[in-house]
Amino acid sequence: MSILTNNDFSNIERQMFNKARDVDVAVFNALASDLDKEFVLDSLMMYQNTDGGFGGGLYIDNYNPASSIYVTYEALRILYICGFDSSCNDELYTKLVNKALNYIYNRNDLIKNKFKRNIKSNDNFAHSDFFSSDAIDNDYYPSASIFALTLFLANPTKAYYKKAMNYLKIAINELLAKDSFNEYELISIGLIVEICNKLGLFKDEIHKLNELANKAVLLSCSKNNEWPNLKMPVILALGLDFNDELAKIVNENLDFIIDSRSSHGLWEPFHKWNTAYPEEESAKLKWIGYISVNYVYILKKYKKIAI
């Protein structure tokens, strides 16, 4: 069983300062020390637009400066993994979250209880195929994640908190009625399960949803035999309570993460844009820091770091 040593972690820290974006360094610092989170807010503010949403390359595969649901979701996800929650009384945090949620719930339409992931103007800027305006966009990713994150990050007195509670209940019931889940829905389900367990919400429904997701991940693993297809659903759905059979696969994933670092100490990107934009090459360099800080989050969560 692999573990990230103190020396490994120090090397990662050093290379993050050399190779990563400011926002990824800020997230890394927050993960390394719970007391060092203010820089995360400062870094995120650089990507927040006047309408409250986020854009401008916060998510590396989309260069569109305009606000979109997906990139705003990414900002909320960063706050969550850095340990922010609704009890935070920092003025900058309150302003950032309120503006973001106002953008989400008051400037975007729900269609069948889902937000549209991408916007038309994405096509005018460098982007991966995932962010094309005509990309398939009919699942609950990231809408269901946004509903759950709202409940965790927002003041319960806010109107969008009540909206999110109703929308999440609908989303959970619709997910429970599905016969299968795609990889992106597993990401949302993992976050829903984790947040609802923390908040004590929808206990019976969450238990059932967790069992269904476990079966879906096992099925995905049985159909694929190589990294990354075999194990990405597991890694991305780490909010689930894994059964014994899946726990073994999870540990194999964690070992693989630790053992797959590049010679410079960080992790290299493995995905492609599947578009013709030359910016993909510079995006790959930015992905090094992004992937690395998210893997550090996973390894810390599963106590795979010797610190």
Which key features would you list for this structure?
mainly alpha, 307 residues, globular
Molecular structure report:
The chain has 307 residues and is mostly helical. The protein is 56% helix and 1% strand. It has twelve helices and two strands, in the order H-H-H-H-H-E-E-H-H-H-H-H-H-H. It has helices at 6-19, 22-32, 38-45, 69-81, 91-106, 143-153, 159-176, 183-199, 203-223, 232-236, 244-259, 280-301; strands spanning 110-111, 114-115. The model has no long low-confidence stretch (mean pLDDT 92).
> Helix/strand/pairing class, anyone?
mainly alpha
Helix percent band: 55-70%
Number of helices: 12
How many DSSP-defined strands?
A: 2
Low-confidence stretches: none
What does the radius of gyration come to?
Answer: 19 Å
Let me know the largest β-sheet.
2 strands, antiparallel
Order of helices and strands: HHHHHEEHHHHHHH
Mean of residue pLDDT values? 92
At a glance:
This protein has 307 residues and is mainly alpha-helical.
Task: Give me the secondary-structure topology.
Elements: H1 6-19, H2 22-32, H3 38-45, H4 69-81, H5 91-106, E1 110-111, E2 114-115, H6 143-153, H7 159-176, H8 183-199, H9 203-223, H10 232-236, H11 244-259, H12 280-301
Antiparallel strand pairs: 1-2
